[in-house]
Design brief:
single chain; 6-stranded mixed beta sheet; 247 residues; alpha/beta; globular
């Protein structure tokens, strides 16, 4: 069995170096090209995809639409789950990362972005950025709508999805694709790789590069690899690492 994890292509707020979270933003032209690249790389594996699951956010769904067109996967069979949404960045949502680092200091911003269990400053209940004011999220129980999240909180809300996903999809010789976001995918990577709270902090998942996990018949991870040249992968990961530094 193969499980392919894919972070959506570059979004407009990725380009602008802003905290995006649950804000719905579109792909850039580069993000569209990244999605096309991802589909072409997956095609080269010459495997059939049994299921595709994505979040309810626009940038992930746009990426998925490009993928299914190239992979000839039926649109009506795509599954959508809000628990795959990006981490909610609370009061940081919409702010430029470099400007935030200048204001609060690089170390503080690094803690907010990369620590395991320290959330960013929370949104107030009357802040218009709160997800309760977005009709897109009306179907989600209000008690599950975040005002801000740490990575640990993302993992906690992802676990019900993951348990159901495994139960329904982990079958020998079946291959699956999840299209989601940096932190929801980091949550899955932490589970699959059995990483510690310290180890997951340094994991960077670039936009638009498929990450393939191979499993044996007992669903133990055999290996994993990105479908991209190592030098290009390292360059993309370095960009993520440097985001948020005061300039």
């Amino acid at each position: 069995m193969k499980l392919i994890l894919l972070r959506h292509g570059e979004s407009q707020w990725n380009l602008e170096n802003r905290f995006t979270g649950w804000k719905d933003v579109s792909l850039t032209e580069n993000g569209i090209n990244e999605a096309i690249f991802s589909a072409e790389q997956i095609n080269k594996l010459n495997i059939s995809i049994e299921s595709i699951t994505t979040s309810i956010l626009k940038r992930a769904q746009q990426t998925t639409e490009i993928l299914i067109d190239i992979l000839n996967y039926p649109k009506e069979e795509v599954k959508v789950d809000w628990r795959l949404n990006e981490r909610h960045y609370g009061a940081l949502q919409g702010l430029n990362k470099s400007e935030t680092a200048k204001k609060y200091g690089e170390e503080q911003v690094k803690i907010w972005r990369r620590s395991y269990d320290t959330p960013p400053p929370m949104l107030s209940e009357d802040d218009k950025r709160h997800p309760k004011f977005d009709n897109k999220f009306n179907f989600i129980d209000s008690k599950n709508l975040p005002s801000g999240e740490s990575l640990k909180m993302v993992i906690d809300r992802l676990i019900p999805f993951w348990e159901t996903f495994k139960k329904n999809n982990f079958q020998f010789d079946k291959n699956h694709l999840i299209v989601a976001h940096s932190n929801s995918l980091r949550a899955i990577v932490k589970i699959l790789d059995e990483l510690s709270e310290e180890e997951i902090i340094s994991i960077n998942i670039p936009t638009g590069v498929p990450l393939v996990y191979n499993f044996d018949k007992n669903f133990n991870v055999i290996d994993k690899f990105y479908l991209i040249d190592d030098a290009i992968l390292k360059e993309k990961q370095n960009i993520i690492t440097n985001q948020g530094k005061a300039k």
